[in-house]
Amino acid sequence: MDGSRKTYVAVVVIQAIYTGMFLLSKVAFDVGMNPFVFVFYRQAAAAVFLAPIAKFLEWKTAPPISFLICFKIFMLSLCGVTLSLNIYGVALKYTSATLAAATTNSLPVTTFILAVLLRMETANIRTGVGIAKVMGIVFCAGGALTIAFFKGPTVKLLLHHHLFSYHGQVQNTAASSHWIKGVFLLLLANAFWATWLVMQNRVLKSYPSKLLCTTLQCFMSTIQSFVFAIALARDPSEWRLGWNVRLLSVAYCGIVVTGVTFYLQAWVVEKKGPVYMAMTTPLALIFTIASSAVLFGEILSLGSILGGILLVGGLYSVLWGKSKEQKMAASNTGDIEKAENESKEQSTMEKQSSTPNARIY
């Protein structure tokens, strides 16, 4: 399997894992688990899981960590992990699951804007490639808004009996006084996550040990999350974990999501860039819609289907634009190298032809 196919498989696996995270964490929050305690436990589980692996695989070959690198990783953990996850968990309390999943797809828009501002991406609308990338962003935003605010008629699946009897809390979000606050918090969480995607690429260039970098982020975010949790969750009963969905969600999100997916995501960001990783987030929403319908018996609406189509269209529009852009860059590089080689050959021939004439005179 070549490198390009590996990245495609990696992003599909990442979004499938995120689908499990969304379902399990939503169930855990609905049964009363505190989101700040949840983030602390999942980051602690991830740090404990990754520490021995990182020590065995990369400790001897990893470059030394300077104070500046340590500070960058600390800020990366604070923005992309601690603040993003804690704000997102609180926002789920204020809004519906549909809006939470839909607004996650504002991540490509935010990431693309940040990457353009930092000159990591270009958006030249005078070219077909630039138009495709911009239209992809528009399609993704339109798809997210369609799923969030347009329901339409419902579509019944052929499967009449769902696997689990859990039903999430039904909220009249349109009339809720916390609606605007919840939307703001969701967008703020995505902004922090987009910042992590963009800055992760720069940190990895100065410190290329991906596994050790991920482990350090988990360790630092554990300390940061503990400070948040101990300050905002004073009831000891909120810290208890039993043999229930709380423990399952913490173990899954800590080991599989934070421990495995963050490493895969860092690898994809390094290979393809932050916008490529961000543009695959619509897949998680599509997987979540399908999984919720099968597992919990949620009924799909026409808005969900139309929004999913727009999201997939936007995804492949941007991927097509980036693919063409990379091919053009590779072609230009090849032309430059070819021109340089021809120039060297011509210079050598001129020297050889001028040498006999010099001897005659």
TrEMBL record:
Organism source for this protein?
Answer: Anisodus tanguticus
Q: Which InterPro entries match?
A: EamA_dom, EmrE-like, WAT1-related
Q: Which GO terms describe its molecular function?
A: transmembrane transporter activity
Tell me which UniProt keywords the record has, alphabetically: Membrane, Transmembrane, Transmembrane helix
Q: Which family does it belong to?
A: Belongs to the drug/metabolite transporter (DMT) superfamily. Plant drug/metabolite exporter (P-DME) (TC 2.A.7.4) family.
**A GO CC term?**
membrane
Report biased composition (Polar residues) as residue ranges: 349-361
From the UniProt entry, list the residue stretches annotated as the region Disordered: 330-361
- What kind of membrane protein is this, topologically? Multi-pass membrane protein
Record localization: Membrane
Q: Which residues form the EamA domain?
A: 8-138, 181-319
**Annotated Basic and acidic residues bias:** 335-348
Name the UniProt record assigns to this protein: WAT1-related protein
Question: Which superkingdom?
Answer: Eukaryota
Annotated SUPFAM superfamilies: Multidrug resistance efflux transporter EmrE
Q: Which residues cross the membrane?
A: 7-24, 36-57, 69-91, 97-118, 130-150, 179-199, 211-233, 245-264, 276-296, 302-321
